[in-house]
Specification:
mainly alpha; globular; about 90 residues
């Protein structure tokens, strides 16, 4: 079942995933990067873009541990909060 994004972090991740995966189909909250056709090289590229976009530290291991877009967004928001940045402030960058 497709469940659309709810937050600016989730929306940004959808855009990043579409760019890296080179797909234009809807990506839902509970979609898995690898189930959508992603592979390890694309994961490395995506982690780099996430680090740059959200200005957080995210390891490749952490990325591989996430089960879906929602879990990744939660991890990003937590990392941003720990760094003193709110998701809304990050989205404005």
């Amino acid at each position: 079942e497709f469940i659309p994004w709810r937050t600016s972090t989730e929306r940004t991740l959808v855009q990043l995933w579409r760019g890296v995966l080179e797909i234009d189909r809807p990506i839902g909250l509970y979609d898995n990067f690898f189930a959508l056709g992603g592979h390890s090289l694309q994961a490395v590229m995506l982690v780099g873009r996430i680090r740059e976009m959200f200005r957080i530290e995210l390891s490749l291991r952490d990325f591989f541990a996430t089960r879906d877009l929602a879990a990744l967004a939660t991890m990003i928001d937590a990392a941003a909060a720990a760094g003193g940045r709110t998701p809304e402030a990050l989205a404005a960058l």
